[in-house]
Amino acid sequence: MKVNLRKIGAIVAGATILASSVAFAGLSFGNTVLVNDNGAPQVKVVVGEKAMASDGVAAANIAAKIANEAFKSTKLTAQVVGEATCSAGSGAGTCTVSDKKVTLEITSPGAGTGASYTLSTLIGDDIDRVLLDRGTNSLSSSGYTYGADTTDTSNPFTDGSSTKLTSAPDYTKIYKIDGSMFNALNSEPVEDGYAGKTYTETQNIWLNGYTHYGSSDDQVVAPMQLVAYTLKFKGASDDLGIQKCTTPQNTSWYAYCTSSSDSDYLTSTHKVSVTFLGQQWFISEMSPPTTSTTSESTVTPGGYVKLAKESHSGIVNVGDEGFDLGDVRIVLDDLEAHGDTTSSIISIVDKATGESIKKDKANVGITKEINAGGKNYKVHVYKIAPGYTYGAKWVDMAVYSDELKLQDGQKLDPDKDDNKYWKVSVGWKNKGASSSDWMPDSLRTIILYTSNTESLIPNSGTMRKGEFVPIVQAPAQWKLTYSGLSTVEYDALNFRLYRDADKTNLNKVYVRDTTNWEYCNLTKPYLYVTSEKSSAFTATTTDSTVNNVGSATSSKFYVALGGVVCNTTAFNLYAGSVLMPQSSTSDDYWVLLNHTSKTVGSSNVTYSLVGDQMTWGTGGLLTFMNVTEADRSWVNGTALTNVTGVNWLGTNTAKVDWIIGMSEKATDAYDNTSKIFFGVDSGSGSDATFNFDDNSNGQGSISTATAIQYFKKDYVYYVKAGPKGTGNSTMKEGLVTDRGSKFVSMDDEQVRFNMAKSIARAQFLLAASDSTDTTDSITKIMAEGDETTVGGVKIKVKSIDEKVGACAVGTGTTPACTVDSTGVSATIMPDDVAELSAVVPYQLTTSLVVLDKDAVDTDTVITVGGPVVNTVTKSVLEGSGVDFTATPKVVKEVVAGKKIVVAGLTAEDTLSAAADFIAAVKKA
Predict the structure, then answer these.
(1) What average pLDDT does range 433-449 have in this prediction?
(2) What is the per-residue pLDDT for 347?
(3) Could you tell me the CA-to-CA distances from 21 to 26, 353, 405 in Å, in that order?
(4) Domain boundaries of the chain, sorted by first residue
(5) Candidates 3.30.379.10, 3.30.460.10, 3.40.710.10, 3.10.450.700; CATH matching 31-70+847-924
(6) What's residue 703's pLDDT?
(7) Residue 64 phi, psi (nearest 5)
(8) Per-residue DSSP letter, 54
(9) Cα 162 to Cα 345: distance, rounded to the nearest angstrom
(10) Which of 73, 110, 466, 832 is most buried, judged by most C-beta within 10 A?
């Protein structure tokens, strides 16, 4: 009996693994998606830093609900398609089918598309090994130094000894993002089933940049100087990497086999897959450098690697119908041998006409690009079985949807122009390195990096809020977005200059003791300082000539720039004295802080909202002194000129008469402050002003620093806390300090600030790119017993059963036989069924619950707790009309698809609101 193999085709086709329907994984509230169809959480639960414990419990209950729904479900189905026909000799017969295969179309969620990571750092800080320290930590200074490449603190660009790879960027002060932060970077096993070898792959993203206030942009910006993505491979028992040859050739060399000689030993012919940019790619070609390497610990740059994505894959026999690509099929016509090389003869066949529109040859280990009908097809042959009979000729081949060349020292995929701003460094080690075995043979590291961010980010490489760097350009799987500053509350700090008339009859000013008080007047001009907080300021009297109660706390105070005149003239006090009400509810009983001298001393007021205590080094200080004192006096043991590096008086008379200074704490971890100074020109009193240009050329320079030349209209003098950005210079309205406070405005009579009550953070979000294809699709032809892994799910074809009917004798000279294929089926492991669902939980390596101070305002959030204890709730509810008195429980989607508030008037109300929210969420 002669079997017509061309007509047999695929016996079982259409088996599909689908991303779960929303009934399995999708979770929503109103228009807000909480868990997407791929099982990835899409929301953060925000709880106030100052919240009660009950708010934390409510937030935890909501997060638990979301985490329980964080899974993806894959569905495997199989159905019977196709037919087999044969022709027989005289008499009855049966058709024997020897080629048993199943065709699986596998569609799975893109790896890592639900992951996200928020990086928070200080304003004016480097993005380096240690964040939130502004370079004071020794680890920040040392960074990731060059040396051995085998530790967690190894520099990713090292050559394994003391320098960097010649093709790699030269950075040691870098920040590492790993799989514990961004779960798409989880370490993955790399399996070579053909050779029985297992490797481990580690992925990381590395950043170098900084944050600072950009005066030209009027906001805090983030110059980003380096973004890198690295892969590092190690063996099961060594730190060498993936071998080019899995069996040594020429006695001991693992780099000797080629596609035309001993190709079976090539890793690139074993269908070895790696995780690359969050998706599964196959190693299609490896070409190590030929540089001599006689040490196993040395990493040698050079060569290239090709990675590919399969759209169709499997064993194809000569005469099979091959791969169905829609309008065409790719079929194997025959095999052709020339010496040691056997080529596959491949045809692109038009399905509608059955005609071959292009023929070509493809050899083992080489991707052949065939152009037919205006389309380009990438055909790759892994293995060839030349056979001795027509039915034993087959190839293990694939059609690639994409292939990238990663060549050392070149841009990513140098044959194309899709990634011209991303460069590649490839490093290799040498297994069994010696003077007689000197060729690198093991792929140790792949580095993708860009230091040309000015071409990827508008505004010359400086990231403004909302701008991002793609990782990489094509395929742009992830992006790093600058999200701007974290949400903080502000105190409106106002300096008001009164110049039209004296302030008269201040009541009950104690200037002698607790039983004697005076009526006092402030001579114009005088300064009135106010805060929104009732107890923002504290003044303490230390002058022995003023025996009063000692100190007071208030939201307001006066600074007598023109002096103090009391009804007992013996107690007239110097200009610059501070008067503060002893009670926050009355203007009576003023505490007097005497400015002790015209030439030495200052008036200091504690402003605890922005610091720890009344010193320049720890923040929380307001000081008032005339310009002579600014050069001569000592503030808490440090001369003001030494604090700021400014000769305020200079050699000539300056227009400025009074210096107002402010120190604010700029980090939680250590003493580090930013400072603001501005001046008052007292004039004749009635024309006193904040807003003047002091261009008298009287400001010389001192040894410690270059001096300020003059005060400018609408400017303050700013001393930065961090090492980065503009500082120690005049700064215009709009300045954001390293703490996060804002210089709002200045005019003749008023200077206004919004002072940050907590330290702001500059934040970056690493997440899937908007253009990311969330699915991975591949069609595989598999024989009985074959298995494969796609998207983390292992698939095995357990068995293919068939029943072929007997041939009936026809009326012609040659009887025809028709196969009855109704009994053909495929069963899929592990449940031995024709249809099953596999549930894969998402690995949640980052917390779903964040504090309000760390919340990124562009994220989708469920904010728990009321506006008093949760700043994000306060921001979300502004203008919403929500009244907790009228409605003690609030469960509301305030911004469609983005912002949900779950809060209550009392602790019990908040817990009840959380329960109501959990009950109301829906599976789509």
Answers:
(1) 95
(2) 94
(3) 8, 37, 36
(4) 2-30+71-110+774-841, 31-70+847-924, 126-303+423-446, 311-405, 490-759
(5) 3.30.379.10
(6) 32
(7) -65, -40
(8) H
(9) 51
(10) 110
